[in-house]
Design goal:
Chain lengths: 300, 337
């Protein structure tokens, strides 16, 4: 087996893991499968593109060292993450909050499906379907040994994704905010009795979910390309990763994303690159049949 | 004048094809409370299976590993389409229904994405991006084009839609429909009365998907050509919008919604074609989807029961008592949902 496929799988897996964390948090805390999540990735990538374009007017557009991106994108990234968090909050305020009050969870899923299509089409309208790039520079892939090559950008993305996963794990297990979130996921009524404000936890969840989606979206735009459908096309692998890892588990989402990413990459030399969605779907079905609670999930 | 009339006939025909699929979704969601995000996938199964069953062996671009059509009669193709869609739905339901409701949503979404991939890539079977052409028309002996053919198309589609409506209404008005409603409202109570939740839900998924498959097959033979682009998530979304706008749980609502949303969709298309310059045609297509998205969200928020909601369902006992009691007394329990 060619280790290059494994390396590609790790890159995809890191992106799926990051995107999946936000999805698993909204799934376990807000209790619905959020179909807009893929489009949060897209929105984050486009927001960063616009911001980096503006910032490069003042800072110049050159990349730093071996990387294709420079200060404009580095500064744009946190702003885009925050803005995507605001977008998620706005959507919650306009749509999901009202439906949540009515208490029918599955209507939320339906509304999120509608919102996803509307948001994606709005992005397509504003930016045209043409693919875009953060930089037109060509990057030379560096040899890493064992016949594996990767561009500096790809290495940076994997490293940053790993670091983000670690920060997030500490946030959720060692801080009061994280404990509150896990408590609401476990049992909302009991959490309320213990003095936790569920509305605040919901807000934190959207901030985190939206921000992480934007991070994954920018990384995806950096290593592949920016398209209006980039996030939506990733939604099935994202769901698959979340379910493989176990809904509600952050380490599970990271591991599940990695498993789906590597499985897709390993399937490429066998059945071709066009069948990646099918691989994610089969993995999803297999997990649901054999171990529906996922690797790290609990029996529900 | 003839042009306008032809367009009107075409419009009604297409709305009726959509109505067949909305009927299927109504069984799944309106009655059984099952959330299906893969409507386009099941319509696609119907279209492709009927095309492969009925198309002549020489259809499409010849290539390595090309599988030809079987050239069977059109109605056999429609039957096969319904069976195939029902089978696929049953498999997804079997795998996901043990779990929380949203797993079914993810599962059906997955099958739609995977099928889209299959349609776009399995060149030998589905013609890949080129699709399948030369799908036989039900009324192949009538020369194509012109108002007469259009009216005949409308008539046959209306017969198919009417048959689907009648069949589904018979099934849902009987014990099966009552059991599904009971299950959607209170699973534990329904199960204690002897309903088997899992079996009933799998049956509802399969029945609904059969109607979707029929819609796909009817559309394929009407147009004579199908391609993967015809079965994208926007289609799922349109069918959902029709059901939500019309009124979930009501077959009449499905009809009202199919016409209302199809009308809105067509009108938005025409409006954007006039208002926006030709260079922004793709932009107009996107805006149209936004319009439908806003319509579905607004409908969920402002009029959750739809334009033509189902009537209040009461037991025969209560209905009798209501008739005999004086007005203003012996009231009904407040409507649920």
């Amino acid at each position: 087996m060619n280790p290059q496929f494994l390396a590609d799988g790790i890159l995809t897996g890191a992106l799926l893991g990051l995107g999946g964390v936000g999805l698993t948090l909204t799934y376990s805390i807000l209790r619905f499968a959020n179909f807009v999540h893929g489009d949060f990735l897209t929105a984050g990538a486009y927001l960063a593109l616009v911001l980096a374009g503006v910032l490069s007017q003042f800072l110049g557009g050159d990349g730093i060292g071996p990387f294709s991106f420079g200060w404009p994108l580095i500064l744009a990234l946190p702003i885009a993450m925050a803005a995507t968090g605001v977008l998620a909050l706005l959507l919650d305020w306009m749509l999901f909050r009202r439906l949540r009050r009515r208490g029918e969870e599955i209507v939320l899923v339906m509304a999120s499906f509608g919102a996803s299509l509307a948001l994606r089409s709005l992005i397509e309208f504003a930016f045209t379907p043409e693919p875009k790039y953060y930089s037109q520079d060509l990057q030379i892939a560096l040899p890493l040994g064992f016949g594996v090559r990767a561009t500096p950008d790809q290495l940076a993305v994997v490293a940053l994704a790993a670091a983000s996963g670690l920060v997030l794990h500490v946030l959720l297990t060692r801080t009061a905010v994280g404990r509150a979130m896990r408590a609401v996921a476990e049992n909302p009524d009991l959490a309320r009795v213990a003095g936790i404000d569920p509305a605040r936890v919901v807000r934190t969840t959207w901030w985190l979910g939206g921000g992480l989606a934007a991070l994954a979206g920018v990384f995806l735009g950096l290593t592949v390309q920016i398209r209006p459908y980039m996030g939506f096309d990733l939604l099935l692998p994202l769901f698959a990763g979340v379910i493989v890892g176990g809904v509600g588990s952050v380490p599970g989402a990271l591991a599940g994303g990695m498993i789906v990413g590597i499985a897709e990459a390993l399937a490429v030399p066998i059945i071709g690159a066009a069948w990646r969605g099918g691989v994610a779907f089969l993995l999803l079905l297999a997990v649901l049949l054999v171990r529906p609670q996922g690797l790290f999930g609990m029996e529900r | 004048m003839i042009g306008l009339l032809s367009y009107l006939v075409f419009f009604v025909t297409e709305a009726l094809v959509n109505f067949i699929a909305v009927l299927g979704l109504n069984v799944q969601w309106g009655f059984a409370g099952l959330f299906n995000v893969g409507v386009a996938g099941f319509i696609g199964i119907g279209a492709y299976v009927s095309a492969l069953l009925t198309a002549p062996p020489w259809y499409g671009p010849p290539g390595p590993g090309h599988v030809g059509g079987l050239g069977l009669p059109v109605l056999v193709g429609w039957l096969g389409a319904m069976l195939a869609a029902a089978g696929a739905a049953a498999v997804v339901a079997l795998a996901t229904l043990r779990l929380r409701a949203d797993y079914l949503a993810i599962g059906t979404f997955g099958i739609a994405v995977a099928l889209q991939e299959l349609a776009a890539n399995a060149q030998g079977l589905t013609g890949g991006p080129f699709g399948i052409a030369f799908i036989p028309h039900l009324l192949a002996f009538v020369p194509p084009g012109g108002l007469v053919r259009g009216l005949l198309d409308l008539a046959t589609t209306a017969v198919a839609a009417g048959a689907a409506w009648f069949a589904i209404d018979r099934v849902t008005a009987g014990p099966f429909g009552r059991a599904l409603r009971a299950l959607a409202q209170d699973e534990a109570a329904a199960a204690s009365l002897g309903c088997e939740p899992r079996r009933l839900r799998i049956q509802a998924m399969a029945l609904g998907a059969a109607a979707m498959g029929l819609a796909g097959a009817v559309q394929a033979s009407l147009i004579g050509y199908i391609a993967p682009d015809n079965f994208v998530p926007v289609l799922t979304f349109q069918i959902w919008a029709m059901l939500v706008v019309g009124g979930m749980g009501s077959h009449r609502g499905a009809l009202v919604g199919a016409f209302a949303v199809w009308g809105l969709w067509s009108a938005a298309g025409a409006l954007f074609a006039v208002v926006l310059p030709a260079s922004m045609a793709t932009g107009g297509a996107s805006l149209r989807i936004v319009a439908i998205g806003v319509a579905i969200a607004a409908s969920l928020l402002l009029r959750p029961r739809g334009l033509s909601p189902p009537g209040r369902i009461v037991s025969r006992f209560l209905r009798e008592r209501l008739k005999t009691s004086r007005p203003g007394r012996g009231g009904l329990p407040p409507a649920r949902r």
